[in-house]
């Protein structure tokens, strides 16, 4: 086969692969998803409802946030608000049950969320790479060209963006805590979480904003070395002191 024929065949294969990667929906490597629940017409979110939503977040560990959806029509401006649930399947099912009880007028009770198989959103994720050895640097972007081109295996936050159209917010403390060390409260580097650099910048900005609003604690500086023991000051007794007399 001619060299130009081989080159043209490779170009066609590469373009078809890119077209398939941009159109196909990638299966997520984690159990996290985002669900939208519309408010019923008879329900009014007052102060008790806001406190109940906070209690549901504590009980389930899922992100429960009120989102205002405004649609600009030619006739009038129609605004409708809904609840956004983000978490794994167990958290979403438990939160949706308590929210339905809230819509019926029953306030949630205080519960303790304990589950042994709880995993972080980035736990077990590995990006695709060519060759035998994994790349040392994280990927710059998983979504390129305005969402038209996708990588082979997007990072967990980009998977939520592609599959559920979810954008990270600074009030989503339950999800932001996955990217913070539980002992020192330092932000985990993308070399540990394997997320792309674009999502890492968004996570870092959201955590800094949440700390300024008092939603997350600041980093605790720890001493690198033990403090030196200081000797008591005084005149040594085993050394003779010579004093000149004028």
UniProtKB/TrEMBL annotation:
GO terms for biological process: mitochondrial translation. GO terms for molecular function: RNA binding; structural constituent of ribosome. It is found in: Mitochondrion. Its main location: mitochondrion. Gene3D superfamilies: Ribosomal protein S18. Pfam families: Ribosomal_S18 (PF01084). InterPro entries: KH_dom_type_1_sf, MRPS18B, Ribosomal_bS18, Ribosomal_bS18_sf. Keywords: Mitochondrion, Phosphoprotein, Ribonucleoprotein, Ribosomal protein, Transit peptide. One of its GO terms (cellular component) is ribonucleoprotein complex. Belongs to the bacterial ribosomal protein bS18 family. Mitochondrion-specific ribosomal protein mS40 subfamily. This is Small ribosomal subunit protein mS40. It comes from Hydra vulgaris.
């Amino acid at each position: 086969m001619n060299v130009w024929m081989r080159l043209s065949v490779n170009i066609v294969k590469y373009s078809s692969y890119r077209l398939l990667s941009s159109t196909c929906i990638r299966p997520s490597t984690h159990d996290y998803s985002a669900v939208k629940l519309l408010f019923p017409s008879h329900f009014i979110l007052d102060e008790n409802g806001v406190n109940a939503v906070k209690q549901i977040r504590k009980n389930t560990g899922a992100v429960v946030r009120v989102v205002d959806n405004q649609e600009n029509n030619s006739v009038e401006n129609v605004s409708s608000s809904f609840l956004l649930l983000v978490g794994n399947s167990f958290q979403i099912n438990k939160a949706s049950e308590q929210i339905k009880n809230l819509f019926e007028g029953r306030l949630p009770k205080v519960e303790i969320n304990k589950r042994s198989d709880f995993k972080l959103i980035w736990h077990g994720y590995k990006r695709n790479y060519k060759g035998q050895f994994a790349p040392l640097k994280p990927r710059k972007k998983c979504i390129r060209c305005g969402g038209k081109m996708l990588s082979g295996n997007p990072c967990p936050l980009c998977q939520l963006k592609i599959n559920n159209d979810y954008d990270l917010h600074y009030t989503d403390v339950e999800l932001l805590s996955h990217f913070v060390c539980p002992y020192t409260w330092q932000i985990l580097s993308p070399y540990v979480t394997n997320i792309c650099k674009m999502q890492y910048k968004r996570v870092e900005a959201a955590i800094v904003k949440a700390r300024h609003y008092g939603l997350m604690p600041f980093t605790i500086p720890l001493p690198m070395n033990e403090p030196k023991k200081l000797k008591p000051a005084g005149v040594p007794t085993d050394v003779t002191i010579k004093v000149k007399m004028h």
